[in-house]
UniProtKB/TrEMBL annotation:
InterPro entries: MazG-like_dom (IPR004518), NTP-PPase_MazG-like_N (IPR048015), NTP_PyrPHydrolase_MazG (IPR011551). It comes from the Bacteria. One of its GO terms (biological process) is dUTP catabolic process. This is MazG family protein. PANTHER family: NUCLEOSIDE TRIPHOSPHATE PYROPHOSPHOHYDROLASE. One of its GO terms (molecular function) is nucleoside triphosphate diphosphatase activity. CDD domains: NTP-PPase_MazG_Nterm (cd11528). The lineage of its organism: Bacteria, Bacillati, Actinomycetota, Actinomycetes, Micrococcales. Residues 40-114 form the NTP pyrophosphohydrolase MazG-like domain. SUPFAM superfamilies: all-alpha NTP pyrophosphatases.
Amino acid sequence: MSMRGDDTASAASGGADGLQRAASIMRQVRERCVWTQAMTHRELVPYLVEESAEVIDAVEAGDRAGLREELGDLLWQVLFHAEIAAHDPDDPFDIDDVAGALSEKMVRRHPHVFADEVAETPERVLELWNAAKATEKSARTSVLDGVSHAMPALALAQKVLAKGEKIGVGLEYVEAIAAAEAIADEDGMEGVLPISEEELGDTLVGLVAVARSRGWDAERALRTAVRAIEADIRSAEAG
């Protein structure tokens, strides 16, 4: 089908809704650009990762202009995936379907905004969010279901430890930290454990330096340790 009529006019109109205009441009690009036509969801993944990283860079740098631009680039990836999905012969969906499903989910997960629940603290908001999510994901059989191993090792470790805490797995790491702090206090020692996020960063870089000096892969080492925690979680869930 051709988009050269109304879509072209919409894309050129300064008064058009920004999101609708971007979606219109995406449709036209895919219709007329051979590179874009050749792309698949899988082939786009590296670009999605890259654009996400650039958004994070802009946030951490406090770059407002950069953040605006990088959010646009990330939005383009969403529009790109949705446009590819719209042409799937077996299970098509478009950006309107994505936005509609998102809207319904956000309404369900904010019953204190759109229904009669009351949440006066951030903690209560999270309780309501997690309760709604648990209902939506009731078919899941493990707390690890939905955890993406595409995350960097540190982010994955934090996620898996949080999941493990829900069923009492991984608490030995917290206990070891508490014991180390107690020993340090008794001996009047300082600097045994980091006391700020900045010090934690220095400690992590130091551990990576140790890994490099000994020919170890820090990323692989952490992923191996996380897999062991995941195994403990699944074992505990199995009873």
